[in-house]
Design goal:
about 90 residues; mainly alpha; Helix Hairpins; about 0% strand; flat
């Protein structure tokens, strides 16, 4: 039962990843692209967590935490750049 749930979760998160990547490339405006990039790193975290569950390895959970930290900082920096035109004051 767990294998079926993991396979289904992989398929759904991979579909969401592909749709976010399409929005990143095709997005009509810069805020849409930043939101798509934010969604992409969240989907990458979900894929790493699922892979860690499947292999029962804690290494993937640590990688997911690092991606979450870098993704948050990157999203804040891009949003600040869009609002003010400058990241470091």
């Amino acid at each position: 039962m767990l294998n079926f749930a993991l396979t289904l979760a992989f398929a759904l998160v991979a579909t969401a990843f592909a749709m976010s990547f399409f929005r990143l490339i095709k997005g009509p405006s810069a805020p849409d692209r930043i939101l798509a990039l934010d969604t992409l790193y969240i989907n990458a975290i979900a894929l790493l967590v699922l892979f860690g569950i499947q292999l029962a390895s804690p290494l993937y959970f640590e990688a997911a935490l690092l991606i979450a930290l870098m993704g948050f900082v990157g999203t804040v920096a891009l949003a600040k750049f869009l609002l003010r035109g400058d990241i470091i004051e």
